[in-house]
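Bench notes, afternoon.
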Amino acid sequence: MARGVTRQEAQVIAELERVHEDIRALRLPGFCGPPVHGPAIASRIFLLGQAPGPHEARFGRPFAWTAGKTLFSWFERSFGAAEEEVRARVYIAAVVRCFPGKTPSGGDRLPSPEEILASRPFIEREVAALRPWLVIAVGRLAIAEVLGKPCPLAEVVGRTVRVKFHGEELDVICLPHPSGASTWFKLEPGKTLLARALRQLARHPAIRHAFPRRKAAGA
């Protein structure tokens, strides 16, 4: 057993590694490239993204391209942790685990309801293993998955929502997708709501527990 890892954490990591084996085995006809997942980390913070982009499979980890740079800059602004520290302490998942491919017009294709349904058991098993205190839902697709319905960003970003997700009572903090193609978080009201959400993140007990020496944004 690795130094500093408790027996309970080792059991969680072992279960997550079994989930990852099944993720790597999944093949859906419309997807492009191999599945992508982060490391098996026993964390009380569960970050749910939408889907890998076209570059993530090459790097072998989620949020490995420009959207990831923006997302991790938000976290550093919020609670002072750099990218590698966040990756080491936050479990990162996604609604689907393969790049869905491109649309005929050249944009990234949204996964179909059937593809989302086929991938949902992975999330259910991850939540059961981790029993998270906090879900960070990034982007409309992830927000809809956690809250159970599509929601306008202006109604959910900047709020901490208490929900039951796959049997676990937990807090949800929603963030817009950090895509460079999005202007929502660069204009009002998105700019103000994002800043509010980042302050809520910094002050959440799960964040303070995972990053105990960090100063909350706005503190």
